[in-house]
Amino acid sequence: MEPLETLDLGYALVQVLDATPEGFGVDYIRSYIVDAGGPAVAVIDTGPASTAEAVAEAAARAARGRRVEVIVTHVHLDHAGGAARVARLLHARGLEARIRAHPRGAPHLVDPASRLWPAARKTLGELALLYGEPEPAPAGVVAETGDGEEIALGAARLRVLHTPGHASHHQSLVLEPASGGDEEKLLFTGDSAGMYDPLDGGLAPTTPPPLRLDMYRESLRRMKALGPGRVAPTHIGVGPGEVLELHERQLDAWEQAAREALEKGLTAEETLQAIAGRDAYTRRLYERLGRSPYGRLMLILSVHGFVDYLKRLRGRG
Predict the structure, then answer these.
(1) What is the predicted pLDDT for the residue at 304?
(2) Residue 51, in any domain of the structure
(3) Can you give the CATH number for the domain in which 176 is found?
(4) What is the pLDDT of residue 175?
(5) Quick check: is 18 in a domain?
(6) Domain range holding 96?
(7) Three-state SS at 31
(8) Of 118, 125, 163, 219, which one has the greatest count of Cβ atoms within 10 A?
(9) Beta 186-190 vs 195-197: how paired, if at all?
(10) In percent, how much of the chain has pLDDT > 90?
C-alpha cells in the first residue's frame, strides 16, 4: 500500500493510508504512520481486519526493523478491527509490535468474540462482515494507556488524551516536537471530533448510540485547548485545527434537530435530511457519503446517537 500523501511537520513524517475495505463504495477510513526518526514508529488506527495486510506491509516498510507502536483511538471495528492482525503480521516479519489502547477498550482487543464482535454484528449488519471479524490479541501484546501519557518517537512524542463521548474507551493523540518547541501540532482525533472531508470541507458528527454528548463536548474543549494546527480524523482526511471549533458549533444544530425529531416523530432519515438542509457542512458530507449505503448508514447512526441521548435525558428527568 502506497500512502495517499505524506505530511512533513519538520520533526516528523506522517503517512496517510487509505484503509477503506473494497466494497464500501466511498473513500472513508484513514490509518496514519508516524516516523520521527526514533527507535519506534507509530501506527494510529489500523482500520478494519479486512485491510490489515496492506496496513501491516506499509508499517513494516516504514519501520525498517524498528519497533512498531500500534495505537488505537478506540476499539470499534473500523479503527481497531485490524490491530491484532497487524501486530501478528509484524511479528511474523521479525518486528516488535505492541498495541496501546484505552483501559476500557483493551480487554475487548484480547477477547473480541465475547462482546465486541456480537455488538458490531447487531449494529452494523453486513457492514461488519465487510470489515471482517477481529482476531484476538495476545494479552501480553496489549498495553493500557494513561491520560496524559507520552510515547517517545525520537524527535516527536505522542501525548495521550482520554476523550470519552463517542465511546467510553476513546482516546485522542497529539503529535508534537519532543523538544517542546512551537512547531505545528497534529491531533489524531479518531471519532472524537467528527468526520471531515478535505476535498470540500464537509463535516458531520460520528455519534452512534450510546452517545454521551456531555462528555463529547468536554472532550472537544480539552482538544481545542491543545491548540493543534491540524487535525487528523480517521474519517476522512486531514483538516485545519479550526475544524474543532466548527464541529463544536455544529453539535448545537444536530442537538436541536434531534429535539425536533422527537417532538414531531420524524424518522432518522427525515432528521438527517432536515439537518443537511440547514447545515452546509453536513450537506456536503451527506452528498458524498450518501453515494454508498454504508456511508449513509454512518450518518443515520449518528442521528440515532443524538436522539437516543435525548431520550435517556428525558428518562432521567
Answers:
(1) 97
(2) yes
(3) 3.60.15.10
(4) 99
(5) yes
(6) 5-243
(7) strand
(8) 163
(9) unpaired
(10) 97
